[in-house]
Structures are given as structure tokens and as C-alpha cells.
């Protein structure tokens, strides 16, 4: 669930997002997963040049599914989970702006953005 609002000026917006899963996931991997997902979704959104000063995005893993905790960055289960979190963040991040700002079209340069982020992280 995400709720957001942008103001044309003075460069302020607010986005609150709460994500939850029944999977058991290691806390460190949750932090990495959410950080990566936020970079390619919520932090990549701009409406009329607005920036946000007070956002929050939370990812909680209840562990009630009974799976062995995801604790390997390279496992296929973790990578599938990570992709799902990214997709949810991307969709939730666009929805409030689309509704409030009347967006009819949007462009996403996800592959190039990911390449730039990975290159910057490697430095």
C-alpha cells in the first residue's frame, strides 16, 4: 500500500509505503532488497521537478509461511522475491502520481537506470 501527494512548489512531496510478506527473510537481505527496489522506483519518480523531504517505505517479513529464511543474495528464491518487491514498488510509486497529477503517459528507462546505479555502487 502506498499513499503519496506532490505539491508543485516548494519542492515538497510525501510518500508513505508499507509492504509485507509472509515469507521468512533475513533482516540484512530485507534491507538490501528494499534499498535496491526504492532506488529504481520511489527515488526515481519526479513530477514537475518536485523532490520529497519526508518519505517512508517499510518492508516487513512475518515469516508465517514456514519457509526456510531467505538468506542468500544469489539464490533463485531471493532473486524472485527481490524482483517481486521491485515490481510492487514501481507500481505503487507510480500510482499516486498518476492519479493526482493526471498522468496519461510515462516513460521508464529501467535498464539504463539500473546500469548507472550498479556502476555507481561498484565505485
Count of DSSP E strands?
A: 3
Q: What is the string of SSEs from the N terminus onward?
A: EEHEHH
**N/C terminus separation:** 34 Å
- Please name the CATH architecture: 2-Layer Sandwich
Question: Given this structure, which CATH class is correct?
Answer: Alpha Beta
Name the strands of the widest sheet in spatial order.
1-2-3
What's the gyration radius in Å?
16 Å
- Residue share in helix: 40-55%
List the helices and strands and how they pair.
Blueprint: E1 2-6, E2 13-21, H1 27-39, E3 56-61, H2 76-101, H3 110-122
Parallel strand pairs: 2-3
Antiparallel strand pairs: 1-2
Describe this structure in words.
With 123 residues, this protein is α+β, with helices and mostly antiparallel strands. It has one domain (2-114): 2-Layer Sandwich (arginine biosynthesis bifunctional protein fold), CATH 3.30.2330. Helix content is 42%, strand content 16%. Strand 1 (2-6) and strand 2 (13-21) form a beta hairpin. Helix 1 (27-39) packs across helix 2 (76-101). The chain is globular, with a radius of gyration of 16 Å. The model is unreliable at 7-12 (pLDDT under 50).
Features:
single chain; 123 residues; alpha+beta; arginine biosynthesis bifunctional protein fold; 3 helices
